[in-house]
Amino acid sequence: MAQQFETDQGYGDHAALGLIVLSTDETMEPELSGVFGPARVPVYHSRLPSQADVTPETLAQMEADLPASAALLPQGVSFGAIGYGCTSGATIIGEDRVAACVHTSHEGVPVTNPMSAVMAACRALGAEKIGFLTPYVADVSAAMRNLLEDNGFAITGFASFEEGREKVVARIAEKSVLTAVEELGQGDCDLVFASCTNLRAFNIIEQAEARINKPVISSNSALAWHLAHLAGRKVPGPGRLFAL
Fold this sequence. Notes:
The chain has helices spanning 28-36, 56-71, 87-93, 95-103, 114-125, 138-150, 166-169, 174-185, 205-212, 219-230, and strands spanning 16-22, 43-48, 79-85, 111-112, 129-134, 154-160, 191-194, 216-218. By secondary structure, the protein is an alpha/beta fold. The chain folds into two domains: 16-113 and 223-243, Rossmann fold (3-Layer(aba) Sandwich); 116-218, Rossmann fold (3-Layer(aba) Sandwich), CATH 3.40.50.
């Protein structure tokens, strides 16, 4: 005889989050687990095919694959927000197109991406002048700089590791990120932004802020904060951004 049972909302209540992660990304999930795990916010992941080398052409290809990856997020969950986890990809594809791709299977759910999240974080922190660190090759970095400037932000300092291979970006030492952030923080900026979801920065944010006495955000910290904000949740995280 079948055992009787009751049902409830499960883990996928209204505060659940969706996250579309690049197949080459090794950093986002470990960093964001420290934000959403302690707050007991359920996060459902899907992977998106991505190439080993970051170029405008490989980034643009993600747009074609994004609807299918979004559709792999569970349909029975009431998502509070869904994030597409690629800073440079969001720059090339565009905020509206990213949202449209996700909405093909999750209509009406708030959608964000690292670039939209970074701009929201800068506005929340009152920052207009940005010290900007990337790991990217020149043409990818230039596209991101242009997008930030088109949205009213001034790039007052810039540095790049000029590395196009995702596997290498994920292995750039945190001390190298800290050194670059500190150097940028000495300039005429309100805030330092370390770009790329595959660049490890979570563990240096608070140390860097203490040294330069300015806010420091990364692609992952901004995305985590914005996802939680859109879903109406307060979560712990590194740096001044999460104190807002």
